[in-house]
Design a protein that fits this description.
By secondary structure, this protein is α/β, with parallel strands linked by helices. The protein is built from 11 helices and 13 strands. The protein has a 6-stranded mixed β-sheet, with helices on both faces. Strands 2-1-6-7 form a 4-stranded parallel β-sheet, with helices on both faces. Strands 4-3-5 form a 3-stranded antiparallel β-sheet, covered by helices on one side. It is globular and about 60 Å long.
Length: 290
């Protein structure tokens, strides 16, 4: 069996320790804030994540850019030259052109290296939901599964990777054009918090609203309870926009109420955080359906 590498991108919101432990290559998306563009590497070498959220809280807006074809080619080609096959697990095509870029690069590289196997999967995932899919893929790789078996598992199970998100910053959603000024004003006055999830097409959609921060966090745990399979065997991931204590409310609730095996916490990176704002908590797990 040929050795193979797994490649993903920074929309997975892996920190440097996770990326190193999993042994995956992480290609950076980019973000622009205050007229400067930065690459979003797992080690946050261009900008500390705390600095990024401080800028958002101060009213600065950020925009983002996908991984392009050349970046994928430049990352994958040396692996192929070294005799490895490559599996790419890419950011949702419903939220970015990153997957499309990977597909173009993969097709070109297949022609250039016909003796090698190179595949890409549109994960239809985001943030640490994407990271959780990669985490499972690496576990299968380490169990000895072939590149085709891991690719097929990812394709078969990606729509069981549930994403549930509690957003705190309505003003930021307004600035990003996702809700109206009136909705933001009324919601802020009434402490209305939107609940968002990623649907089967990989889009981030608003699916509900609750009154109060604590209620919004508890709603995430409720949704986990409706969908999770074999919680006693599952490691769930929770990402947050600079609000770890709120993330722990969700994680501890999931453990106490449903007995999940383990919880991994991490930051929502600048690429996702640019669109959701500070104070966001996102919960990821394998379930019966999204």
């Amino acid at each position: 069996m040929s050795e193979y590498a797994i490649v993903t991108d920074s929309a997975a919101d892996m920190d440097a320790a996770m990326a190193q432990e999993l042994g995956v290559t992480v290609l950076p998306l980019s973000f622009t804030i205050e007229d400067h563009t930065y690459e979003d590497h797992p080690d946050r070498r261009d900008m500390p994540i705390e600095t990024f959220y401080a800028k958002l809280r101060a009213g600065k807006m950020a925009t983002t850019s996908a991984v392009n074809v050349a970046q994928f080619t430049d990352a994958i080609e040396p692996l192929l030259q070294a005799g490895k096959d490559v599996l790419v697990l890419a950011f949702s095509s419903g939220l970015s052109t990153t997957y499309n870029s990977s597909a173009i690069a993969v097709e070109e590289l297949r022609e250039r290296y016909p003796e090698r196997k190179v595949f890409t999967v549109d994960t239809l995932c985001a943030s640490m939901g994407q990271a959780l899919l990669v985490w499972h893929a690496v576990r299968l790789q380490r169990e000895g599964k072939t590149i085709e078996e891991v690719r097929d598992w990812a394709e078969a199970n990606k729509l069981q990777l549930c994403h549930w998100v509690a957003v705190d910053d309505l003003a930021h959603l307004k600035r990003g054009g996702r809700i109206s000024a009136t909705t933001a004003f009324v919601g802020g006055m009434l402490s209305i918090k939107p609940i968002i999830h990623v649907d089967d097409e990989g889009h981030l959609i608003n699916v509900g609203k609750v009154r109060g921060r604590r209620a919004s966090l508890e709603r995430l745990v409720d949704e986990l309870g409706k969908r999770i399979e074999h919680p006693e065997d599952q490691t769930i991931f929770i990402s947050h926009s600079d609000c770890l204590e709120d993330a722990k409310v969700v994680g501890e609730g999931a453990k106490a109420r449903f007995g999940v095996k383990d919880v991994v916490y991490g930051y929502i990176g600048p690429v996702i955080g640019a669109h959701t704002g500070p104070g966001t908590v996102a919960l990821f797990f394998l379930g019966t359906e999204r």
